[in-house]
Write a structure and sequence with these properties.
This is DegT/DnrJ/EryC1/StrS aminotransferase family protein. Helices cover 42% and strands 10% of the residues. The chain is an alpha/beta fold. The protein binds pyridoxal-5'-phosphate.
Length: 410
């Protein structure tokens, strides 16, 4: 039996696509990019994305081309991508930021016209559907992360179109995996338990502040240090995952370690609770969508089709950085902030900059990704902090259905 096939079968049943088990979504993306893109190719992607993903694209020997995004949700705005850019790219990588879907209909149509692959990053979007179809079934391949919705801090899937491709990718994966280590397995099993204990015991604030003080966080800022000269040197070895490991492994050092039975058993248990988790997320998203801080994408969806079971609910607030810092005192650590956009972060040596960087800058600097599982606590904290709603310079392309903030305790 191929490695991780029981877990993969569970995901295949959910998604209706063939799945390969991987220790992380970043490894899934690397596999997909290596399988569908020739080294030297150019990949259209959103600059409002995890820096780790930028390094995965570079590790695959590809040039990241930063797309214009919508200030509405931070995802690629296909209509704003210049025709010359469309004609010059070899693949498109979606983000589905925080679980809000990319404009997959338009992206897959353009990719089909151009004869290039759409690769879906579904790491944030495990429960998101578009017209009744799950995100992760629109492209050639899709990456899912179990570190996100089920908080496993390990595991993921690569979903592909057919059994033959799955078998091919299982072999590619096996070549990249590093052997199981008991220590890594124990850490992967205990880490999520430690995190939930910290939360249950209301220790988020002291634990976070202590990690900050001891320098245990891999990012001082929202982005990791780039180390440009070392990055240029690694480019000489690309495509090569090992050459980029110092960047790709950030936040998940065992991203390519073969998990043993202990970890896989725990992941199966967590997968069996996924539907309950998604139900709780929808409830939290409903609460957050009714507040004045909800991004237009959030409000609009809740008003028309019901809530998505988001990984994070994008709220838009003034003075976001100071607010995020104060939220730690309320026991809320706001992760997954991708600021500045990747073109400002990495510069033209490493990426093609977006032709219209303003919406990405605005969105990245105002979005506060809120965990829907903590919706009550977030609303209470933002109310106490008198957080004000950020308004985009240009009006967002939706009718104004804004409601007053939800009263506390609802
Ligand atoms: C948008 C996005 N894609 C992919 C990943 C990688 O997921 P994993 O940690 O499972 O490798 C992350 C990680 O945070 C992410 O934010």
């Amino acid at each position: 039996m191929p490695y991780g096939s029981r877990l993969a079968a569970t995901m295949t049943r959910r998604l209706g696509r063939e799945c390969v088990y991987v220790p992380s979504a970043r490894l899934a993306l690397y596999l997909a990019l290596r399988r569908w893109c020739r080294p030297g190719g150019r990949v259209l992607m959103s600059p409002v994305n995890d820096d780790v993903i930028l390094f995965v694209v570079l590790a695959a020997g590809l040039r990241p081309v930063q797309a214009p995004v919508s200030a509405w949700d931070g995802n690629i705005d296909p209509a704003a991508v210049p025709e010359a850019t469309w004609r010059g790219v070899d693949a498109v990588l979606s983000t589905n930021l925080y679980g809000i879907p990319d404009r997959v209909g338009e992206l897959s149509r353009r990719c089909a016209q151009l004869g290039i692959p759409l690769i879906e990053d579904a790491a944030h979007a495990i429960g998101t559907h578009v017209d009744g179809r799950p995100i992760g079934t629109f492209g050639k391949a899709a990456a899912f992360s179990l570190s996100k919705h089920v908080a496993a801090m390990a595991g993921g899937f690569l979903a592909v179109e057919d059994g033959r491709t799955r078998r091919e990718l299982e072999l590619l994966r096996d070549d990249l995996l590093e052997p199981t280590r008991l220590r890594a397995d124990l850490a992967a099993t205990l880490r999520p338990l430690a995190r939930s204990a910290v939360r249950t015991l209301h220790l988020v604030r002291p634990a976070w502040r202590t990690m900050q003080r001891l320098g245990l966080l891999e990012r001082d800022d929202f982005r990791m240090p780039l180390h440009a000269p070392r990055l240029s040197a690694s480019a000489l070895r690309a495509p090569n995952l090992t050459a980029y490991e110092p960047w790709v492994r950030v936040d998940l050092h065992d991203f390519r370690t073969r998990h043993g039975a202990l970890v896989r058993g725990q992941l199966r248990l967590r997968m069996s609770r996924l539907d309950t988790d998604l139900t709780h997320r929808r409830a939290g998203v409903t609460l957050l969508s009714g507040t004045a801080w909800a991004s237009p994408a959030l409000r609009d969806r809740a008003a028309h089709d019901g809530p998505y079971p988001l990984f994070r609910a994008p709220l838009l607030v003034d003075d976001r950085d100071a607010l995020a810092e104060r939220l730690v005192d309320h026991g809320i650590v706001s992760g997954y902030i991708y600021d500045p956009p990747l073109d400002d972060y990495a510069g033209a040596e490493f990426v093609d900059p977006s032709p219209d960087p303003a919406p990405a800058r605005w969105f990245a600097s105002h979005v506060l990704p809120a965990d829907p599982l903590l919706a009550h606590r977030v609303i209470r904290a933002l109310t106490r902090e008198r957080a004000t709603t950020a308004q985009p310079a240009a009006p967002a392309p939706v009718p104004d259905t804004r409601k007053p903030p939800t009263p506390l305790g609802q």
